[in-house]
Design a protein that fits this description.
The structure holds two protein chains of two kinds. Chain A is an alpha+beta fold. Chain A is built from five helices and five strands; from the N terminus they run αααββαββαβ. A four-stranded antiparallel β-sheet of chain A has the order 3-4-2-5, with helices on one face. Chain B has a four-stranded antiparallel β-sheet with strand order 3-4-2-5. The chains are: A alpha+beta, B alpha+beta. Chain A: It holds the Pfam family NirdL-like_HTH.
Chain lengths: 153, 157
């Protein structure tokens, strides 16, 4: 999809600066010089094209009381689809990537307690029969800020 | 701040997404059986408590030109980690930054996620981070395939 200058400006604004007020799309429109209707139409289109995956609240898991970890599992190449299906089935697993390393499948687990995180991990090992998993809970958090400066690209 | 049952319902609505209508909070407020004003006040409170970072759009980053992402794993001595973490977290190219425990089979204790338009750009970022932090023991793990990427659905499990 070709993004024009207005789309790019709009994407930068809706990533970082979404106003919480009665008519947020009108306020966004005023900021970038288009009408509320055009803001809504463009956002609709950007969602349909899957440029925007979601427009909603971005929460701090830890402040909601959730515990999380990062895990990597060694999966034989012929079993990747099948193992991914087992792992991806959990709501608390939001990210799963193949990476170029012998620990090739990397996923995050989020759950309402540490025990629940452990339980999910135990279930994954049991269901897949793969025990070679590294579990890397975070000890100190420095940053999560996933914004992409679209206008510079 | 302790979340009330209403707050949890608000979290559930906001994580599902904001409707694309002129007054989106009014639409959600009606679903929650409260007034638009009450909802907006509550959303501000949830944000001020740091529970919600913001309302915002999550992009498919490869669709806006960021085709490569790398997890850079670092081996950093304990006494330097706080300083290095704060330095790295300041850089806009770094979207995630965590200290994690090292394991015998996995000696890395520090993680940064970077996104670039190509692997070469990720590599250049890594070199720059390495110079800034004065740490040379690191490796890049490029993502090969995205098997799942979704937003967390809190209070749904």
């Amino acid at each position: 999809m070709q993004l024009d200058h207005i789309d790019k400006h709009l994407l930068d604004v809706v990533q970082t600066d979404f106003p919480i007020c009665t008519e947020p799309y009108r306020v966004i429109g005023e900021k970038i010089g288009i009408s509320e209707q055009e803001v809504l139409a463009r956002l609709e289109c950007l969602m349909q094209q899957d440029v925007i995956r979601r427009l909603g609240g971005v929460f701090d898991s830890r402040k909601l009381g959730y515990k999380g970890t990062l895990c990597a599992i060694k999966v034989p190449s012929e079993r990747i689809d099948e193992v991914a299906e087992v792992i991806n089935n959990y709501i608390g697993i939001t990210h799963n990537y193949l990476r170029d390393h012998e620990y090739n499948m990397w996923f995050t687990i989020l759950a309402q307690s540490s025990e629940k995180v452990e339980q999910i991990l135990t279930e994954i090992k049991a269901k897949t029969g793969i025990n070679d998993v590294i579990n890397l809970p975070s000890q100190r958090f420095f940053k999560v800020l996933v914004n992409f400066k679209v206008r510079e690209t | 701040m302790t979340l009330t049952d209403l707050d949890k319902k608000i979290v559930i609505e906001l994580q599902a997404g904001l409707p694309l209508v002129s007054r989106p909070f009014e639409t959600l407020a009606r679903k929650l059986d409260i007034t638009e004003e009450e909802l907006i006040t509550r959303v501000h409170a949830i944000q001020q408590a740091g529970i919600m970072r913001r309302i915002g759009a999550a992009l498919r980053h490869h669709r806006v030109g960021f085709k490569a992402n790398a997890m850079i794993v670092w081996q950093i001595s304990e006494d330097k980690i706080l300083e290095v973490g704060e330095q790295m977290a300041k850089l806009p190219e770094v979207t995630h930054c965590y200290q994690r425990a090292a394991l015998p089979q996995w000696p890395y204790n520090f993680y940064t996620m970077v996104h670039g338009q190509s692997r070469e750009e990720c590599q250049n970022i890594a070199v720059r981070l390495s110079e800034i932090a004065g740490v040379t023991n690191y490796r890049l793990l490029y993502s090969v395939t995205e098997l799942k990427k979704s937003s967390m659905k809190y209070f749904m499990d």
